[in-house]
């Protein structure tokens, strides 16, 4: 598996941060939650970065942290759901990672995100299902564009999803 890097992409709530560590353990790789990496780099929480500096500042930090991950190997990275809206990130993902799109139905995402919408800057202050549907509409094509593999996650355990991903890796 040489210098393999796996990136899990998909909308917030699809399970990237839950499946990532399970997959990393299974592959013997390191796991990086990109949002935690960004917070460590910035010394602030993501809501603070959004409030103080705006989304574009957050996206620049996100791109910088993703580029750092692209230079490493034996890594599973879980970026935030919006990482794909920046063209340079999509290029980096396609070039340097086996990208797995964890696809979930909007109803599944809404159920999972209901309790935490107020802590997520992109969801705050909007009717949840409407906001998810709109953002998915904006990002869906980008998730497909970067995906080396698509895994539908509705009703599956993190272990089952990790197994499906690792089986997909063996066939590439």
Distance between the termini: 10 Å
Overall geometry comes to globular
Unreliably modeled segments = none
Number of DSSP strands? 5
| CATH class group | Alpha Beta
How would you sum up the major sheet? 5 strands, parallel
Q: Strand content of the residues, in percent? A: 5-15%
How many whole angstroms does the radius of gyration measure?
15 Å
Query: What class, by secondary structure content?
Result: alpha/beta
The CATH architecture: 3-Layer(aba) Sandwich
| Fourth-level CATH superfamily | P-loop containing nucleotide triphosphate hydrolases
Structurally, the number of domains stands at 1
Q: How are helices and strands ordered from N to C?
A: EHEHHHEHEHHEH
Family: Belongs to the shikimate kinase family.
Subunit structure: Monomer.
Cofactor: Mg(2+)
EC number: 2.7.1.71
Please give a structural write-up.
It is a single chain. The chain is globular and about 45 Å long. The chain has a five-stranded parallel beta sheet with strand order 2-3-1-4-5, with helices on both faces. Helix 1 (16-27) packs across helix 8 and helix 6 (106-113) packs across helix 7 (128-146). The protein has a single domain (5-170), classed as Rossmann fold (3-Layer(aba) Sandwich). It has 172 residues and is an alpha/beta fold. The model has no long low-confidence stretch (mean pLDDT 92). Helix content is 55%, strand content 13%. It starts with a strand and ends with a helix. The chain has eight helices and five strands.
């Amino acid at each position: 598996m040489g210098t393999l890097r796996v990136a899990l992409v998909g909308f917030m709530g699809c399970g990237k941060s839950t499946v990532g560590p399970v997959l990393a353990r299974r592959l013997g790789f390191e796991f990086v939650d990109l949002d935690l990496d960004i917070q460590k780099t910035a010394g602030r929480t993501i809501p603070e970065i959004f409030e103080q500096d705006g989304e574009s500042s957050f996206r620049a930090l996100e791109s910088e942290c993703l580029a750092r991950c692209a230079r490493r190997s034996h890594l599973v990275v879980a970026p935030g759901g919006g990482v794909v809206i920046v063209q340079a990130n999509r290029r980096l993902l396609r070039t340097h990672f086996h990208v797995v799109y964890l696809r979930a139905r909007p109803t599944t995402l809404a159920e999972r995100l209901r309790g935490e919408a107020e802590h997520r800057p992109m969801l705050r202050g909007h009717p949840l299902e409407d906001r998810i549907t709109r953002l998915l509409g904006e990002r869906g094509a980008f998730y497909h564009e970067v995906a080396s593999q698509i895994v539908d996650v509705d009703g599956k355990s993190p272990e089952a999803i990790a197994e499906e991903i690792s089986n997909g890796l063996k066939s590439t």
